[in-house]
């Protein structure tokens, strides 16, 4: 599953690398802005992956094939309906979201005219990207449900094929549309849309090929409202948790935008490092989701404990490898992502935060998987709320009141992100210890 997950940031990494080699930072900044908005909105419905995975894994432990199929069907209907609604309402939320993220809603009235023009150019590129990206909404959400369902069934090969195929298509189209045909931001958006569609098509193909013999067990193709109600009960906490997480990253991006387009672009490059970290370490989290969920379905406490220990051990070892890799090759990756000297220099100044980030964040990623598999999602939500509202947002307030120079303010942003990760790891670690000691995982 780690190999499957590590392919995910390639979508953003290739986009960043292609745009980072164009002649103006506004291209990269605009796509970073729009991509953050879409990632935030789409991942609000990340419970379609997390909730579907945990509940499917428990159904596997109970050997309940009908429920396994009902979970796939219900999550798919929900994904299609929600994606269609996002497309219909795009004129309401996309302009507002981009304005909010760009910092224009709260920008200082004393900004120079040149900086205001730079911001408008960034927003224009962001809107062009959004016009294409929104069309993929149903496919992105379907992807969440399908991948969660396969992982819950402990079949990680199909998600690997889905994600690798999507990334290959994205890379090929990025090179053709952007570098060869000169389509710029529009080419990047079309490439990402095509990647999302191809991933869903491959996933559905595997379902029809491998599990069609189970379909007669279903009484129909309409969603099961009892199952949907159960999913809502579990997923409401994941929804709040995910929304809070995305608020943190949205505030981070918005604050960076207020520092100027060069800081916004440099932070976008460095966030690619964070995406690599989370995607690699989430591989162990996804494995823990499936195995802990199955163990909880069987009510096997010793096996839950074994999965937790092994997952923490391997994710910790992987975090050390990432720490060393970024320490040695971080500058090379920055130069790969952009050849704009101003962005390279600025990203280098803040690279050290990303070098140490795997050592701090690895624990929260792994515990996410454990809590989702056990459907202890309310506790996970509460830790996220405390980390955002009690740690990250106060850091932003301190930065504003301190009136720091921009270079120090950006260091403050990354310090806030580091403390946010540490708070999540500590909080879920303490709760996990309590559940383990008192045998309260199910």
From TrEMBL:
<dbReference type="GO" id="GO:0005886">
    <property type="term" value="C:plasma membrane"/>
</dbReference>
<dbReference type="GO" id="GO:0015297">
    <property type="term" value="F:antiporter activity"/>
</dbReference>
<feature type="transmembrane region" description="Helical">
    <location>
        <begin position="68"/>
        <end position="93"/>
    </location>
</feature>
<feature type="transmembrane region" description="Helical">
    <location>
        <begin position="350"/>
        <end position="371"/>
    </location>
</feature>
<feature type="transmembrane region" description="Helical">
    <location>
        <begin position="238"/>
        <end position="257"/>
    </location>
</feature>
<feature type="transmembrane region" description="Helical">
    <location>
        <begin position="263"/>
        <end position="281"/>
    </location>
</feature>
<keyword id="KW-0472">Membrane</keyword>
<feature type="transmembrane region" description="Helical">
    <location>
        <begin position="414"/>
        <end position="435"/>
    </location>
</feature>
<feature type="transmembrane region" description="Helical">
    <location>
        <begin position="187"/>
        <end position="208"/>
    </location>
</feature>
<dbReference type="Pfam" id="PF01554">
    <property type="entry name" value="MatE"/>
</dbReference>
<protein>
    <submittedName>
        <fullName>MATE family efflux transporter</fullName>
    </submittedName>
</protein>
<dbReference type="InterPro" id="IPR044644">
    <property type="entry name" value="DinF-like"/>
</dbReference>
<dbReference type="GO" id="GO:0042910">
    <property type="term" value="F:xenobiotic transmembrane transporter activity"/>
</dbReference>
<comment type="similarity">
    <text>Belongs to the multi antimicrobial extrusion (MATE) (TC 2.A.66.1) family.</text>
</comment>
<feature type="transmembrane region" description="Helical">
    <location>
        <begin position="132"/>
        <end position="151"/>
    </location>
</feature>
<feature type="transmembrane region" description="Helical">
    <location>
        <begin position="158"/>
        <end position="181"/>
    </location>
</feature>
<feature type="transmembrane region" description="Helical">
    <location>
        <begin position="383"/>
        <end position="402"/>
    </location>
</feature>
<keyword id="KW-0812">Transmembrane</keyword>
<feature type="transmembrane region" description="Helical">
    <location>
        <begin position="26"/>
        <end position="48"/>
    </location>
</feature>
<feature type="transmembrane region" description="Helical">
    <location>
        <begin position="307"/>
        <end position="330"/>
    </location>
</feature>
<dbReference type="InterPro" id="IPR002528">
    <property type="entry name" value="MATE_fam"/>
</dbReference>
<keyword id="KW-1133">Transmembrane helix</keyword>
